[in-house]
Amino acid sequence: MLPSRVDHVQLRGREVFIKRDDLIDTCLSGNKYRKFYTLVNTPSSHYTKIISYGGTQSNAMYAISCLCKEKGWEFEYYCKPLSSHLKEELCGNLQKSIANGMDLHEVAYEDFQDKIEALQGYKEDKTLVISQGGADTIASEGVKALAQEINTWKNESNIKKLSVVLPSGTGTTALYLKNWLDTDIDIYTSVLIGDRNYQMQQWKRLSDGPYPKILPTSGKFRFAKPYDEFLQMYKELGSSTEIIFDLIYAPKTWIELMNFFNDSDTKILYIHTGGVSGNETMLERYAHKKSRK
């Protein structure tokens, strides 16, 4: 449902507003709905096939599979070889995406980059290739709508100083938000994939700027690896706010948010970018890590 509502919560005595994009749709939730908003409003006859690539438990993969199922489009997805665990038993977003009709193609590690480059140059009538994670110019329209909702909410709430915070995988949502938010709104993001330099490369591929601010991090973290401090924050968020967050993107962002913002005059709006469908497999990884100890 649009516009998504804004909740008011407390964490460690700090007030934070939460933009509940996770409630927009049960499958196309969070920033995936915003990124694929253009496709949601595209007539089914416009395409016959969607092609994309990336990780085997990608939230974007699952969102595209839902969209293609609804539109009647074929969906081809390319990934690196499945783990032995996944080959034995499909689970999580991969299982749900295949159930939606996704055609999965495994590509050898040494050939994957060449395959991506070939896909990016692929041209066929009524076929659309979407970059990994939805890092694509098609995301602009939906993120513009999100920015307009935030601008309106800020003005109607008489907030003078607002900082918008959200996690970044590809950083596409944060980048386009920066373009469309009112100039007196600061936007900060937490980098989950790679480092600051990698994130800047991703942004420069899509835009000449201006770019969002990157929250300082306390160390190096591998994407989607289970960390005890992330699980602790996930549980604290759930008990304090009674809202379910994702286990990959949200914990690191909230840790950095709480460490960085000391100015009580600044109102913080956290954008809940969805992704909770991936919690099933992440909780299994945490349980496996605990059992190994």
> What profile does the largest beta sheet have?
6 strands, mixed
What is the structural class? Answer: alpha/beta
Number of strands: 10
Order of helices and strands: EEHHEHEHHEHEHEHEHEHHEH
User: From the 3D coordinates, which CATH architecture of the largest domain would you assign?
Assistant: 3-Layer(aba) Sandwich
Distance between the termini: 43 Å
Find the CATH topology of the largest domain: Rossmann fold
Number of helices: 12
Number of domains: 2
As a percent range, the share of strand residues is 15-25%
Question: Could you write a compact summary of the structure shown?
Answer:
The protein is α/β, with parallel strands linked by helices and 293 residues long. The protein has 2 domains: 6-26 and 138-292, Rossmann fold (3-Layer(aba) Sandwich), CATH 3.40.50.1100; 37-134, Rossmann fold (3-Layer(aba) Sandwich).
What would your notes on this structure say?
The protein is built from twelve helices and ten strands. It has helices at 30-35, 37-40, 59-71, 84-88, 92-99, 112-120, 139-156, 172-180, 196-206, 228-241, 250-260, 279-292; strands at 6-11, 14-19, 49-53, 74-79, 103-106, 127-129, 162-168, 185-191, 213-214, 267-271. The N and C termini lie far apart (43 Å). It is of the alpha/beta class. The longest helix is centred in the middle third of the chain and has 18 residues, at 139-156.
Annotate the secondary structure layout.
Layout: E1 6-11, E2 14-19, H1 30-35, H2 37-40, E3 49-53, H3 59-71, E4 74-79, H4 84-88, H5 92-99, E5 103-106, H6 112-120, E6 127-129, H7 139-156, E7 162-168, H8 172-180, E8 185-191, H9 196-206, E9 213-214, H10 228-241, H11 250-260, E10 267-271, H12 279-292
Helix pairs in contact: 3-5, 7-8, 10-11
